[in-house]
Amino acid sequence: MKPTAAPGITEKDVLHPRNPHRAPYDFPQLSKASPELAAFVRPNPYGVQSIDFANPAAVKALNRALLRQFYGIEHWDIPKGYLCPPIPGRADYVHYLADLLAGSNGGTLPPGEDILVLDVGVGANCIYPIIGRRAYGWHFVGSDVDGVAVRAAQQIEAANPSLAGAIECRLQPARTRIFDGLIQAGEGFDLTMCNPPFHASAAEAAAGAQRKSTGLGTGPGTTGRGPRPVLNFGGQNNELWCEGGEAAFIRRMVQESGRRPGSCYWFTTLVSKKDTLPGVYRALKTAGATEVRTIDMAQGQKKSRLVAWTFLSPRQQEIWRRTRWNSVPEAGH
């Protein structure tokens, strides 16, 4: 049943139907679940209870409250300056991946305990594994090139009994590699997922932060808190930019996936820029992908999409379903 929005407030119906964050934030309820949030909640200019989304501490407190209320996570923290992601958009990616799996299995979602997901760039926040584990019971391997991020994600897993044994965090030893040196011999994943670095340089990332800061009313020429941009969601350099931006990162991901075609059923990635898609499709054709799907979605308040590809033949896909998901073979096979 479609959730009902509060009177006088427009529902965020761009989010996935199963996303529990479709309705506007219920700050009074969230404050009950997480009292530390209450210190940041006050009426906005429209008289509605909210927080200052330009305040990193307020955003962090909101995330803690959401994780506690919706995902049963009692202990969650990230090092200062690391990415504190908007949870509704992150949840959308996970729910669309569940649809992708179900669509590959005759409309039935494979049992959660059978699904192994590789989260490329898990980050210190460990958000995707938390959501995927709590929503669908999936098991995760989270990789990152940043040792501090890996240790922080491990601490989140260790501090929450509901995540015990469900998340393995690995350090990617080569900063310019994605799957190489990470996926082990004989290892198979049902899904990979990734939110690539968006920007192509540190300067571009800083300019993006300035534009965002101005939009939030905190940049030059506003009546906000001053001229310096505020990264309300934070982010280290490797989380925000890489040489060539998302286009180069995804092309490299496609190339590396093509060197291990049988290691995963569906490789996937978010693609923020529509202009990135033609180059991704060319790379996938060159790599020999047998099937490519593009799924439009919302990532927070902006339009985005995920691209999924596989190298498995129809016969190989059937064997995968039967042996890994305990699916009943299709008629005639």
UniProtKB/TrEMBL annotation:
EC code(s) of this entry: 2.1.1.181
Major location category of this protein: cytoplasm
Alphabetized UniProt keyword annotations: Cytoplasm, Methyltransferase, rRNA processing, S-adenosyl-L-methionine, Transferase
UniProt region (Disordered), positions on chain: 1-21, 205-228
Gene3D superfamilies noted in UniProt: Vaccinia Virus protein VP39 (3.40.50.150)
GO biological process: one example: methylation
Compartment(s) where it occurs, according to its Swiss-Prot or TrEMBL record: Cytoplasm
Keyword Zinc: no
GO molecular function per UniProt: methyltransferase activity
Reactions this protein catalyses: adenosine(1618) in 23S rRNA + S-adenosyl-L-methionine = N(6)-methyladenosine(1618) in 23S rRNA + S-adenosyl-L-homocysteine + H(+)
The organism's place on the tree of life at top rank: Bacteria
Region forming the signal peptide: none
Role: Specifically methylates the adenine in position 1618 of 23S rRNA.
Protein name: Ribosomal RNA large subunit methyltransferase F
Species the sequence originates in: Hymenobacter frigidus
